[in-house]
Amino acid sequence: MRKHTIMRQQTIVLASAALLLAASAAACSSDGSGGGEASTPPPATAGATSPSASPGGARVVASGLAVPWGVAFLPGGDALVTERDTANLVRVSPSGQRRQIAKVPGVQPEGEGGLLGVAVSPSYATDHLVYLYFTTASDNRVVRATLDGSLGAPQPIVTGIPKGPNHDGGRLQFGPDKMLYITTGETGDGPLSQDKNSLAGKILRVTPDGKPAPGNPFGNRIWTYGHRNVQGIAWDDKGRMYATEFGQNTFDEINRIEKGKNYGWPEVEGVGRRKGFTDPLLTWSTDEASPSGLAYANGSLWAAALGGRRLWQVPLDNGRAGRPAAHFEAVYGRLRAAVAAPDGTLWITTSNRDGRGDPAKDDDRIISVPVR
User: Fold this and answer.
1) Does 237 fall in a domain?
2) Contact predicate 56/48, CB 8 Å
3) What's the longest Cα–Cα distance across the chain?
4) Structural domain span for residue 285
5) Taking the CB of residue 45, how many other CB atoms lie within 10 A of it?
6) How far apart are CA 102 and CA 268, in angstroms?
7) Are 229 and 113 within 8 A, CB to CB?
8) Contact (CB, 8 A) for 275 and 281
9) Cβ atoms within 10 A of the Cβ of 368, count?
10) Are 267 and 5 in contact (CB under 8 A)?
């Protein structure tokens, strides 16, 4: 639930062409909305560029899934996909073949919680380890298990992440440094975001066995804090890190993530220009975005929008955000995951069966989107 915003924001609106590209473009129409606001630097013309890559014809890889939340690719090109509400871990090939690997034990779906993020070990060829983030009866946690035909017994490596009916975070991804990054939400309890003794409302950075990673700023698992609910992280080709963040009533965000920084929640929503807080790279109105999954490909960030029901493309110029462009507006409905696939495409998932969408007969779907 979104409440009254804490701070007002003065930004310059960027006009953005709403691009509607789908497998069957004739069946679609655009309402022309979209844009986003560049908050670093403030002038709309500073650092703004045209999109360097655009999605081509999309194709449905798989359909009939139940809230596919996380996607992570195995070395051979198949993907592991989590279903939030069923706790099923599913293997999906690029040709669309799928097989249920396991119903993950210990998962207790509730509200926005359930079986969420999935990551594959950078050393999977030798260790066969996969990582899962899920909600239990008492907490959110990260486990790891071997995958060798079947899923081995999950072993907890990070426990005690606060859980709630909403704002459970849940994204997992290994960074260029081969450390595991974990995004958490503040479960609707805003002050937890500022509490460096709590794992809620944070981006965590841990070793593959769940210990605080070397070089962390506070000597614990916390990498950054002051987050409301992060569900997407990505790195560009220079190793710079970015994250999507749900706002409350007014501003959703993409942030440039840097060690030890405070991203403001609940003191600031959007741009505050206040000492001690880090302003976002880009903001949108909440009805345009509610950004979840985030990927980087071909010079752009790609953000899957739930409430906005579109795929946002944000070109980057040396770490600065250019002019955002909206794709697939109202074509596929709510979009949850966005992941760069080994073949150079993006895989995005719909989230129309999550209780907030209008599911089509074949929902939920995984969609492959070429970028060029």
Assistant:
1) yes
2) no
3) 55
4) 12-370
5) 10
6) 41
7) no
8) no
9) 20
10) no
Distance CA(140)–CA(304), nearest Å, equals 23
- Per this entry, what is the length of the chain? 372
Distance CA 162, CA 309 (A): 28
Number of domains in the chain: 1
Of 142, 65, 63, 136, residue with least CA distance to 106: 136
Q: What's the whole-model pTM score?
A: 0.88
In a domain, 357, yes or no: yes
The secondary structure of residue 344, as a DSSP letter, is: S
Q: Pick from 325, 348, 322, 351: which is nearest to 337 by CA?
A: 348
Q: Which residues pair with 98 in a beta bridge?
A: 92
CB neighbours of 74 closer than 8 A, spacing ≥ 6?
A: 80, 91, 120, 124
Q: Both tokens of residue 57?
A: 């014809």
Asked whether residue 7 is assigned to any structural domain, the reply reads: no
**Distance of alpha carbon 321 from alpha carbon 330, whole angstroms:** 24
Give the up-direction half-sphere exposure of residue 109: CA atoms within 13 A in the CB hemisphere: 18
Q: Which amino acid is at 24?
A: S
pLDDT tens track, the chain, 372 positions: 443 333 333 332 333 333 333 333 333 333 333 455 544 433 222 233 445 566 768 999 999 999 999 999 999 999 999 999 999 999 999 999 999 999 999 999 999 999 999 999 999 999 999 999 999 999 999 999 999 989 999 999 999 999 999 999 999 999 999 999 999 999 999 999 999 999 999 999 999 999 999 999 999 999 999 999 999 999 999 999 999 999 998 999 999 999 999 999 999 999 999 999 999 999 999 999 999 999 999 999 999 999 999 999 999 999 999 999 999 999 999 999 999 999 999 999 999 999 999 999 999 999 999 987
Q: 187 - beta bridge partners? A: none
Place of tokens 């050393």: 123
Domain harbouring 215, CATH code? 2.120.10.30
Return all residues near 27 (Cβ < 8 A) that are at least 6 apart: none
Residue 68 in any domain: the answer is: yes
Q: What are phi and psi of 124, to 5 degrees?
A: -60, -35
Other CB atoms within a 10 A radius of the CB of residue 219 amount to: 8
Alpha carbons 280 and 286: distance in angstroms, whole number: 14
How far does Cα 70 stand from its chain's mean position?
9
